[in-house]
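User: If only I could read backbone structure tokens as easily as an amino acid sequence. Those tokens are not coordinates but codes from a learned vocabulary of shapes. Could you go through the record with me and say what the backbone is doing? Here is the record:
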Amino acid sequence: MTTYQEILKELNNKIYKPIYFLFGEESYFIDKITDYIADNVLNDAEKAFNQTILYGKDSKIEDIINNAKRFPMMANYQVLIVKEAQNLRGIEKLAYYVEQPLKSTILVINYKYKKLDKRTKLYKILNKNAVLFESKKLYENQIPAWINTYLKEKKYSATPISTQLLTDFLGNNLSKITNELDKLMISLPEKTIINPEHIEKNIGISKDFNDFELQNAVLNRNILKANRIIQHFGRNTKDNPIIRTINTLASFFIKILTYHFTNDKSKNNIASVLKINPYFVKDYVKAAQTFNIKKVVSVISLLREYDMKAKGYNNATTSNEDLLKELIFKIMH
């Protein structure tokens, strides 16, 4: 299976393959590869006659194959892009074309949000004769590093707290993250080190009232600060859903439990085991001193209980704000 970086490197070096079958749950990488091919293989004059975009819901496999078998006009290649290919009926019939593709056609198939069955004839032939790329969702613990890489390419950087804020608020939707980062960079000069103040001003994520700050309030047993954050969440429920807050706390306490049972507690090893930025290791050292193993296990049990209540189980009347107040009180006592 070809990687995203390998595909872009070849495309940048003008090494083109007859078929690119791009599938998987993460649309961002699929779109980036497709856009690169659409923007760079042909010049503007060549595109008029040699670049075609079809949509799976409006096309038949026979139409795609017939288009793919056309020869380019006054150009070395024709580019045929099929979007929403997951909506195509009888996509397995594409195997007949994949067996002997036309080398002057660059066929790009966008098969989003689904996996291709590896047992099928189509998958096996694609794996042999095409560029086959599975676009996987990144885990949330991979997002801060990904943000850093993205910013570095654009000649920006960010503080560890800033990347964590963005991750907690935006999750692992790369398209959403890049949209917000691009808007942020428009307003800031190159080489800016992005901090929470920049994020609050340009994206709207409060630097004082967020899941990360609530986590710190719990860590420091700061009841006043925790209640202020929870009250803010209660007034802004759309941007601060309780399920996300509980998931953030659950991830934190599971990491504390892992820290307790890790023999090598050196900074680098803990960062590697917990899959966190070394900057945050000190928080887990303090957390382990504050919450012993018995308490951590109890808190994880509480988080599961309140996750169910927030979803409506055994709870008909308590508001999310009051649920969160109860939960945080129990965690800190």
In short: The beta strands are 19-24, 51-55, 78-83, 105-112, 131-134, 157-158, 193-194. Residues 140 and 172 are 6 Å apart (CA to CA).
